[in-house]
Automatic annotation (TrEMBL):
This is ABC transporter ATP-binding protein. InterPro entries: AAA+_ATPase, ABC_transporter-like_ATP-bd, ABC_transporter-like_CS, P-loop_NTPase. Residues 2-237 form the ABC transporter domain. PROSITE patterns: ABC_TRANSPORTER_1, ABC_TRANSPORTER_2. GO terms for molecular function: ATP binding. Keywords: ATP-binding, Nucleotide-binding, Transport.
Amino acid sequence: MIQLDQITKVFPDGTKALDDVSVEMPEGKLTVVIGPSGCGKTTLMKCINQLEKPTSGTISIHNQLISSIPEVELRRDIGYVIQRIGLFPHMTIEKNASLVPQLKKWPKEKTLDRIRELMQLVGLDPDIYLTRYPLELSGGQQQRVGFVRALAADPSILLMDEPFSALDPISREQLQDELISLQQHIQKTIVFVTHDMDEALKIADQIILMRDGKIEQMGTPEEIIQSPASEFVTQFIGTERLERNRSWLDVPLHALDLTYQKELDPAIRSFRIVNTATVREAIAQFEKHQVPYLMVANGNELVGFISQLTLLQSATRSEVSA
């Protein structure tokens, strides 16, 4: 868990980027920090790995003050993915991805095994790509390698600063999907900065919406959509998006283009729901029974399993059939 307590950051020119910010980012969850340009979201992220140092306040990771951890040690234990990726063009993909494990003096065999495993996870065949150079890869492929490099030393925390904003829409959507899938495997504490509300609603477990260095609202995507805390939040989300998502709550499950997870064991901890139930009713069952999946049934036939994540993805993409 990352805990920020009364964080204020004032730059030498007098600009107050952060103003008494207190927030918790839960362990193993993806927290999106979003807001307009200049709201302080990137400064907040950089304070976590001490690329920026707060003027006042404290930051703790796993109940340890980061001020008590040497900066180099702290940064080697936090993965960092940036918009421009930052791969070294004169190094192969293998050497780029091996940098942090080498700094931490991992054995070469362990490092290579880890990198090959991660390359497979992000959809890049290590036998094909490890010997290539960054300029031989597309932008989307380079960004995937950025993931691999950030995760190579198995950090518990991953910071992502607008990593998809420079990509074309198709590559961006593909990488959002892959991040969701990857997070299901790695279960890292991820802090993701973006200015794109659709992206935030699609990938986040928790959203922190900022304005003028303060937190305007914090909550799950569902909470922010259903109960905007202020007129600013409503405007930032967009009235059309709010109405689209609210109307989606009353759509029956069978009308959604969902990919049901039929391969799951029926004995998995879940609760049964009929496919004529609405999305709103499904969310209520998730909250009531605290289960990871719902079994969707059409009469006596088991259609498959759905999670809250698959429901939210469907809402974000507006995949409601006519």
